[in-house]
């Protein structure tokens, strides 16, 4: 019989899929589809590694509570791991996170505290401050702190990087990913640079307005990526290039992925693919561009995939339809 003992044993080893319709040049553009993780996103990888490391170090004790500011995906990963290991979870997230995503966390049995998005991180109501306060108030609480936990990038150094090298037979030449905590790009990037002797180019995709691409924290709508501060999990030396992508480009590309590649993925995936397509415009047939797609699209049906929502921000253009209720195609 071939079965896993628990869903957390199924984290990682996600497939690579070639983008055929949205990418038409000579360079293969391969998508690492992270929604195949059991919790539905790339964050399962860091959740598992951070919890196991905290158990090893004694920071997380049996019966303890995990408290974390998260935009949803890290929460799902943590909730999944916590359920297996018997911990309580309290998650703190900004109000721009869709209600669907918050309900998923609750469905896994976690508690969710919602905070305003439009306040600076140092404000007492920010989701960073509130989670800090809860850690001191709750007994035996442990905060993974994905923005400062070295096991976040390490999980990608140990899993995502080696997987990509093996899946491409060492032929990967460009790795493109969005930057939130920076864990994905820093850990995967470090592995790929080391194993290739510095040959693989690491390219960040970043929402216009975020600090990584020179912004000052101007608000944007794409979720899970970009920051208004510099987390220590991001290695500022890792990227050879960072490409700023507008919300409009991120969301129209996200819809294209569903409509033309049958990949129903989240808005940060469209952002990363928009950057990867720009990279592929200047590469040749011997190059291999890999772009990481962090999560699936079901958490965004009332936003990116909703025509009225898109139109209310002026994001719907005749060239970038993507299918959605009401379209005549
Ligand atoms: N996309 C989504 C939807 C995410 O939740 C995250 C994590 N915040 C990212 C991209 C960015 O990944 P990382 O934190 O590893 O930079």
TrEMBL record:
Keywords: CBS domain, Lyase, Pyridoxal phosphate. The keyword Mitochondrion does not apply. It is an enzyme of class 4 (lyase). It catalyses: L-homocysteine + L-serine = L,L-cystathionine + H2O. GO terms for molecular function: cystathionine beta-synthase activity. Its EC number is 4.2.1.22. Its cofactor is pyridoxal 5'-phosphate. Pathway: Amino-acid biosynthesis; L-cysteine biosynthesis; L-cysteine from L-homocysteine and L-serine: step 1/2. The keyword Translocase does not apply. Belongs to the cysteine synthase/cystathionine beta-synthase family. This is Cystathionine beta-synthase. It comes from Saccharopolyspora cebuensis.
């Amino acid at each position: 019989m071939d079965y896993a003992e628990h869903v957390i044993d199924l984290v990682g080893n996600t497939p690579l899929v070639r983008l055929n319709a949205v990418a038409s040049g000579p360079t293969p553009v391969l998508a690492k589809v992270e929604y195949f993780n059991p919790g539905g996103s790339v964050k399962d990888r860091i959740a598992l590694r951070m919890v196991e490391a905290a158990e090893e170090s004694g920071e997380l004790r049996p019966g303890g509570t995990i408290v974390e500011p998260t935009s949803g995906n890290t929460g799902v990963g943590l909730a999944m791991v916590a359920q297996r290991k018997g911990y309580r979870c309290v998650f703190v997230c900004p109000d721009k996170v869709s209600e669907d995503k918050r309900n998923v966390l609750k469905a896994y049995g976690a508690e969710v505290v919602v905070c305003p998005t439009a306040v600076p991180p140092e404000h007492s109501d920010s989701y960073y401050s509130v989670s800090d306060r809860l850690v001191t108030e709750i007994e035996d609480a442990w905060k993974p702190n994905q923005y400062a936990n070295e096991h976040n990038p390490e999980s990608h150094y140990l899993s995502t990087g080696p997987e990509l090298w093996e899946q491409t037979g060492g032929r990967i030449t460009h790795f493109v990913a969005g930057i939130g905590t920076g864990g994905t790009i820093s850990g995967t990037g470090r592995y790929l640079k080391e194993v290739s002797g510095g040959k693989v180019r690491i390219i960040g995709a970043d929402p216009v307005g975020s600090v990584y691409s020179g912004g000052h924290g101007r608000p944007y709508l794409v979720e899970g990526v970009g920051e208004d501060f510099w987390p220590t999990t991001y290695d500022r030396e890792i990227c050879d290039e960072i490409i700023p992508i507008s919300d409009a480009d991120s969301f129209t590309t996200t819809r294209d992925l569903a409509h033309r590649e049958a990949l129903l993925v989240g808005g940060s995936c469209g952002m990363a693919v928009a950057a990867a397509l720009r990279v592929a415009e200047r590469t040749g047939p011997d190059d291999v561009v890999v772009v990481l797609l962090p999560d699936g699209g079901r958490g965004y049906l009332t936003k990116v995939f909703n025509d009225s929502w898109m139109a209310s921000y002026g994001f719907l253009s005749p060239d970038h339809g993507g299918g959605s209720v009401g379209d005549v195609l």
